[in-house]
Every structure is written in C-alpha cells, then in structure tokens.
Amino acid sequence: MFTVEGRSYARVTAPVQTSSAPAAAKAVSHPVNNGNNCGSSSFSGVPLISYAAPKKKRRGGAQNGQKAHRGARLAQASWSSSSGGSSRRGSDYLGEPLLIIPRGSQTSTRGGPHYFSMGYATYGQLMGYHPEYYQPTQQLPVPGMQHRESFSSMGSSAASDSTSSGSASPVHFAHYWDQMAAASASPQSYEISHLAAKRDWIQKASSEVPEGSLGITLRIMSYNILAEQYATKKLYPHCPAWALSWQYRRERIREDMEHYAPDIACLQEVPMGEFYGYFLQQFQVQGYSGIFKPKSRAKTMDSKYQQTVDGCCIIFRHDRFELIHQDWVEFNQLAIKSADGSTDMLNRVMTKDNIALCAVFRVVESAVPSYILAVNAHVHWDPEFSDVKLIQTMLLMNEVEKLVAKTKHDLNVEDVPIVFCGDLNSLPDSGVVEFLRNGRVSSSHADFKDLPYRSCLQKLSSSQGRVMTTAPADDDGPHFLHHPFALSSVYDEEDMPFTNFTSDFKGVIDYVFVSRGKFQTVGVLGALDPTWLEEHCVSSFPCPQIPSDHLPLVAEIELIP
C-alpha cells in the first residue's frame, strides 16, 4: 500500500498456477477494452491475462530479457492500437506483481505496454514523470470460470472517460484450476480491495498528551498470518485456491502491515524461510529490523527442511527502538525441567513444541532512559489440551519474571513495562486469560482437567520464591498460582466479537496485554463491519479479501512514566 498525491493505491499480484491444472487447458487472452481505447502512447484498458500449466519445462528466457519462473508458462496478452489495429503483445510472470508500462513515443518507438515483475503496476495517459498507479480494486473470477466479456468492470465508454481523466483501470485475471474447483465455482466474481474489509478505529482515550506523560505513542500489531503448510484446501474448503496460495496471501499480509504501519509487529506462524527471505527483506528497506525464533522441532531437522518450520517474529522500527536483548521460551524444555515426576507434564506438555519470543527495547526518543519488554507467544492450538495451554502460559510468565528481574538489574532501572502479544488459542473465559488478566488462577481450575499437576506447579512457583496461596482463613480452600505483573487487555470484550473465523470456529483467541499503569490505550482497530461480511458473502477466513484465518490486532498505546 502506498500514496501518490494524497491518493492510496495497492499493488497488484497475479495468482499462482497450481500443478494440478488440466493439461488440456489452453491459455487465452482478451483485451478488457476495445482497440479504440488503446494507443501507442496512452491506453485506458489493461489486457486480460490467463494461464495454463506447462506440459514440459520451458527452455530459454522470456521476452524483453526477463527470466521465466521455473515451470511457468508465459501467456501472451494482445491488444490493438487506435491508429491501425496492429496487434501488440506483452508477457507476465506467474505469481508475481505486474509493472505495466505503455511504451509509446515517449519511451519506445515500438509502442504498447509490456509486463515485468517489478513489484507494482503503473500506467497512465502519458508516462512522462508522473505515472498513475492502479487503484486498490481489481476483479478476479472464481476459480474454474473462464473469462466472460461481461465480466469487465469497464466498458468502452467508461474506459474512454478514464483516458480523459487519467484514472486507472482495474486489472483482470482468468485462471484454470482442477476439476474440483471448477465444479464448485459459481458465476460470482470477487472484488479485491485492500481496504474492502471495513474495520473502524475505536478511540479509547484522548489523543492529547496528558500532563506528566512522556508523549510517546506506540502502535502495536499482533497477527497470526497462517503459515503456508497449514493453509490446505481440506481445512479451508470455502477459500478459492488462488486466494489460498501463499504467493497471493503473503502479498496481502505485507499490504496489511504496510497499511497499519505498526512500530512493533508480533507475528505468529511465520515460516523461517519466509521471514528471512521475504518479510525481513521487504521491511528492512522501510526502516524496520526483526528477530525470529522457529518452533523447537527445527533443531532436529536438516537445514533444508528448517525453512518450512513456522515460528514467532518481532519486527520493529529501528529508528524508534534499540534492541538491547532477545530471548526465547521453548515450552517443551521448560516442561522437562518442571515435570517433578509428573507423567502428564511429560506426555502432554513436553510433546508440544510451541515457543515464545521476547525482546527488550530501549525507547530511543525518550528523554529519560526507558525500556519495554515485548513478548510474542503462540500457545498450543488443540481444544482438548486446555491444561497444556494454561501450563505453557504459566511457564512463559515464569520466564518473563526472570527476564524482567535481570533487565532491571543489568540496566539499573526500576521497571520494565510489558507489551504481551499472542495467539493464545484460548477464549476470554479460559484459565489462560484469567491467569494473565488477574495475575492468578486456581490450581483446581477446570482447564487443568483434574490432572495431577499440583506438585510440579508448586515447584514452578517456589523457583521464583513464591508459594501457592490458599483462600483467606481457609487452608482447605483452593490453591492459587500467581504471576507478579498487573496486565490489562487493550481491547474491551465488546470491541472484538471474534479474531479467528473458520468453518467450524468463530471466537476471540488473539490478545494484546500491556502493563497496567505504565501504558494508556489510545485506540484500537475494531471489529469487521457485519454488513461488509454479509455483502461480500464471507462465511469464513481466509478469503480473497482476508489472507489469514486470524484478523490482525492493532492498538495505539501511550507510554506513561
């Protein structure tokens, strides 16, 4: 997402061809607008590009000196000039953003636009020094549906008006998919817009700087991006195959992040190879740095296969934050240390390789030395293992307590405020959320499933110099397990009715907590507009407009001295 002369635009990415496309499928191309609207130095229509899988590996390079994607078949797009009806051709790469340049009298004597993999789409009435960019709306057909002339959102008359006004046309793609996708397709088309998923900003406090405040406002994001290996057609049957492809979704995820422009972004389910090979590279040029930790299983794998292991990352603006220290929490290793002979701790908790990532930052613009601790956690997913989720959270907070104590000692500061983000896979009434929000939870909580964890939990508490307390004046009452931090959610319960929406689940499982009294919540990104969901017939995530099964949480918080 970017802005030109006060107007916002989105990048355009072609969908990726699946290897299961029928061999008999034939790539065809039609111009969106007729020849009267296409000239050698200006044009208002964009050729329709469609693809078919190659029958064999393509040899040689593509047109215009570009290298073809491995296994990709270049489809040609033809159009006519307004002067004589002569045919012109261009090329495109599968799954890559398009750069569309009219090559007329100002850029070439050959005329007509060509396609290159350059990151965004551009064209205009005159190229000169002021190119126009595509507006953030594009039309894509449902998988399996061939192009229909009536599918175009711009007729010739509309296109002519576009030429005179200098505005941009949508890009159209047609694609062939396997027989299953074709059989389930309908004539409906999806309108893709980065801003189509309407979410209002909820103001929580005055944006004016209160007296005595540091005047430092931070924008925080927590986002489970749905790793490629989990985004299968079996799990997400309602999502079109092209919208489920990683090449499509990662571009939408990047656009989400660029649009909301967080100062600190905590992402979950990020594949190792994608963090280092895509996200870090994309955001380094925008002033960000990042750290990453994969799930514990990566340690037992060959380097080649480690690239697909997902984990947690923290991406931050290095002009606002200096990374002082990073640490990570491997829940299975802590479970071994805390087992104290508990077979349930070993058989249920130790076998789950979830992790959390922690980072201590110095707030660069603070006039007085100020530090914060960012925590990014991804807790086990299975509803049948509520005990594992709660114990993982307790293990994490135990390590956070150690890290805060060490940071305070090493940096000689009185406090280190916490920003806690994560996909906790737990509902608001769960033991996990109760423990984080209230600072304690009963050892007899239902989420423990009456399993004999008490001895190992007692060991965990005593390791930090605490004891499991009982209800006042009642030694036989419930025993409580504690953490020492006062945390509050930046979201109120009514702000977000759900953060995760699939065919069999809809609820809140993602959270952002901050240190109470150390941060003031200025505002949060609210829920999806129910009318928008109904109008776009969205029955679950991901979908063409929403690239993950989770919604990103975004909050602005103000640091209080």
- At CATH's second level, what is the architecture of the largest domain? 4-Layer Sandwich
Residue ranges: pLDDT <50 for 5 or more in a row? Answer: 1-5, 7-195, 471-475
CATH class of the largest domain: Alpha Beta
Rg of Cα set = 27 Å
Q: Tell me, briefly, the overall form.
A: globular
Roughly what fraction of the amino acids lie in strands? Answer: 25-35%
Q: Going by CATH, what is the homologous superfamily of the largest domain?
A: Endonuclease/exonuclease/phosphatase
- Count of spatially separate domains: 2
Helical content band: 10-25%
Kindly state the number of beta strands: 28
Q: Summarize the biggest pleated sheet.
A: 7 strands, mixed
Separate helix tally: 12
CATH domain topology of the largest domain: Deoxyribonuclease I, Chain A
Question: Structural class, judged by helices and strands?
Answer: alpha+beta
Mean pLDDT value: 73
**Spatial order of the strands in the main sheet?**
11-27-28-12-13-15-14
Q: Distance between the terminal alpha carbons, to the nearest Å?
A: 35 Å
Brief sketch in words of this structure:
This is CCR4-NOT transcription complex subunit 6. It comes from Hypsibius exemplaris (Freshwater tardigrade). The chain has helices at residues 156-165, 179-184, 241-244, 246-260, 272-284, 303-306, 331-338, 343-349, 386-411, 431-438, 454-462, 530-535; strands spanning 2-4, 7-9, 49-51, 77-80, 87-90, 99-102, 113-116, 137-141, 173-175, 189-193, 199-203, 216-224, 264-271, 288-294, 310-317, 321-330, 355-363, 371-378, 418-423, 440-442, 469-470, 479-482, 487-489, 500-502, 505-507, 510-515, 519-528, 553-559.
